[in-house]
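re the bet — no i am not wrong, look at it urself. input seq straight from the record:
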Amino acid sequence: MGKSVSKNIPSAPDADTRFMRHALALARRGLGRVWPNPAVGCVMVKDGVVVGDGWTQPGGRPHAEREALDRAGDAARGATAYVSLEPCSHFGKTPPCADALIAAGVARVVVACGDPDPRVSGRGLARLRAAGVAVTEGVLEAEARALNAGFISRIVRARPWVTLKLASTLDGRIATASGESQWITGPRARAEGHRLRAEADAVLTGSGTVAADDPLLTVRLPGYEARQPLRIVLEGRDAVAEDAQIWSTAKTSPVWLATAHADADRDADLDARGVRVLPLPAAADGRPEIAALLGVLGEEGLTRLLVEAGGTLAGAFLAADLVDEIVWFRAPFAIGGDGLAAVGAFGLAELAAARRFRPLRRLPLDSDVLEVYQRESLDF
């Protein structure tokens, strides 16, 4: 990556916003590739010129600050570092980034938001200030928190951020009465769905969807070949077929089976094929407990989970109040009440008990429409 030059230098507050937007754009490149770490961007600026920038690399290291400092070299001395998340202050698999910024002679650090990790929270900024580095906090904080909602969720709630993806007709149907579903939405909507997969740590579907559609759940966009998420199949009361095509790709792109029904012979066979089996407790209906699954995924370091499933599993996630965001693709036609519903029944008796979401954005995609909703009350 080359260095970019900023011309027509704006006033200081506007410059802070401008360069932090650059850092956030860089951070987004790491989404889906850096768990269990956050996706961070860093821009080194001196005399209004970008002298180095970077973002968290696949696997979570090197960190963004280290990447930007290496690109800046000696030009980092006296520069301002724009970082989308508080620089770390603890020794992990890499030395503290706060120490690296101090050692490089950075004069000022502008941070979008603090790091909720108790090993870091406030300590990185305190270390910088103690070394005489000027610190500015809260520049584009809301945008930074939204970008790293998954990391924050894992630290604060011990579970990943859950996005439920739905693709339906105007009347909320995902297939005809005969089961025909390909394709309800058009090429642009489907491409956007693949981009969502590329930014997720993992994509989850249910055994019913595997039986009906036999999906691969891979990212199939030009230039995104290396951005493949972990794929998780949640087994319901019926076992997943042994010849499902997703198993055959486990050694090239990881696959996990989450199940409440252990089968030693089957599980050993899947392990030999590269599939990891996650045992889970069973709910009253015999299906795995979703909350328990999310807890295990949080322990494994996953931060962003994309759910692409049929109506039964979509309804189960909503009924359990475990959906943080809904991404809904709508096609401009109706199927009717005998079609398969995008969200299955979950026993709601009163409107007051309904899960509420607020609209965030609406985007036309040729004849289709993308709508994004977020739960009204976040607990972090």
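see?? Confidence is low (pLDDT under 50) at residues 1-11. told u. also The two ends are 35 Å apart (CA to CA). so pay up
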